[in-house]
Specification:
The chain is an alpha/beta fold. The strands form 2 sheets. It has a 9-stranded mixed sheet, sandwiched between helices. A 4-stranded mixed sheet has the order 3-2-6-7. Helix 1 packs across helix 7, helix 3 packs parallel to helix 4 and helix 5 packs across helix 6. It is globular, with a radius of gyration of 18 Å. It starts with a strand and ends with a helix.
Length: 296
C-alpha cells in the first residue's frame, strides 16, 4: 500500500492575542510566529510521524521553499508537488489564552490544481493505495471520482466546509472523517448518533470517524460496528493541528489493521499531546512519543 495526501500547503501566520478580534476592533498581538501548515500538510506530517512513507501532491508558489524543506525533514516525497509563479496558500491564525483558534485562509497556489495535474499524479497509484483529501484545494470532486475509479481507499476530511461539498459524490469515500461541527454541516443533524445514522442512511458503504471535542471520538463502520474513546486531558496551548493529528494517526492505525479501540486510543493520545504545543506541524508528536505516553 502507498500513502498519498493530495492537499493544501500553507504558510501559517499565527498571532497570539488576548481574545479574538471583534468587529471594529484594533488589537495588538503579543507575538507573531511563522509556521508551515495547511490541513493537507498537517495530515501528511501526522501520517509520516505515525510511521508511514508518505507521498504529497499539491502546489506551492515561489515563496514555498520553507514548505518543501519541512516536508523533506519528515521524509515526505514531494515529486508530485506543482510549482507555480504566484504565492503559496497562507493562513492568518489567532490563538487566545485558552489555546483556541480562529483561522482565515487564502488559497494561493492551492487554488491552481487542475484535472490534468490530478491525472498525472494518480497515474502512479493503484488499487488498494490510500489517498487522503481535505477541502482546501481545487478539483477535489474530480480527485474523488478518479481515485474511486482506480479502486483506491479514499479518506475525506471535508474541511473547511463550503458549498462545493454538496457537489461531491460521497459514494466515492471509504472513510469520512469529521468533527461534530462538520458532521452537522454535512447532515443537518446536531447529535452524534443522529449524524452517524443520517450518514449511514445516505451512504451505507461509508465508514465514519467522528471527533467530539471534550467527549472524545466515535467510529461507525460500514459493517454496523461502533467504537468509542474518551479524551486524554491536557493543558491546551494551541489547538490548531489537533484534528489533523488525529486524522493522520487514525489512518495509520487503520492501515496496519490494528483493533479499532487501539486506533482510537492512539489517535486521541496523539491529539492530546499536539494541543500542548504551539504551531501546527511543530506540535505533532512522533509515534514513539505517543506509545510511551500511552504506557505512562
Amino acid at each position: 500500500m502507498k500513502y498519498l495526501v493530495f492537499g493544501s500547503l500553507n504558510i501559517d501566520r499565527t498571532y497570539t492575542v488576548p481574545h479574538f478580534v471583534e468587529a471594529g476592533e484594533t488589537m495588538s498581538a503579543a507575538k507573531m510566529e511563522l509556521f508551515c501548515g495547511g490541513k493537507g500538510f498537517n495530515q501528511a506530517v501526522a501520517l509520516a510521524r505515525a510511521g508511514k512513507e508518505v507521498y504529497f501532491a499539491g502546489a506551492v508558489g515561489n515563496d514555498g521553499g520553507m514548505l518543501l524543506e519541512a516536508l523533506a525533514a519528515d521524509g515526505i516525497h514531494d515529486q508530485y508537488i506543482k510549482r507555480t509563479n504566484g504565492a503559496s496558500g497562507h493562513a492568518v491564525i489567532q490563538v487566545d489564552p485558552k489555546g483556541q483558534n480562529c483561522i482565515i485562509i487564502l488559497p494561493g497556489a492551492n487554488g491552481e490544481i487542475t484535472e490534468a495535474d490530478v491525472d498525472a499524479v494518480l497515474a502512479d497509484f493503484d488499487k488498494g493505495d490510500l489517498i487522503v483529501l481535505q477541502n482546501e484545494i481545487t478539483c477535489v470532486s474530480y480527485i474523488l471520482k478518479k481515485a474511486a475509479e482506480k479502486g483506491m481507499i479514499v479518506a475525506l476530511n471535508p474541511s473547511p466546509y463550503d458549498d462545493r461539498i454538496a457537489e461531491y459524490d460521497m459514494n466515492c469515500v471509504t472513510y469520512l472523517l469529521v468533527n461534530e461541527v462538520e458532521g452537522e454541516q454535512v447532515t443537518g443533524c446536531t447529535q452524534p448518533d443522529a449524524i452517524a445514522a443520517k450518514l449511514k442512511e445516505l451512504y451505507p458503504g461509508m465508514n465514519l470517524g467522528l471527533t467530539l471535542g471534550s467527549r472524545g471520538a466515535i467510529f461507525c463502520g460500514a459493517d454496523g460496528s461502533r467504537h468509542a474513546t474518551g479524551i486524554y486531558r491536557s493543558n491546551a496551548v494551541d489547538t490548531t493541528a489537533a484534528g489533523d493529528t488525529f486524522t493522520g494517526y487514525f489512518l495509520a492505525g487503520l492501515a496496519e489493521g490494528l483493533p479499532m479501540e487501539q486506533v482510537l486510543r492512539m489517535s486521541a493520545k496523539a491529539s492530546s499531546i499536539a494541543v500542548t504545543r504551539e504551531g501546527a506541524v511543530p506540535s505533532i508528536p512522533y509515534r514513539a512519543e505517543v506509545l510511551e505516553a500511552l504506557q505512562a
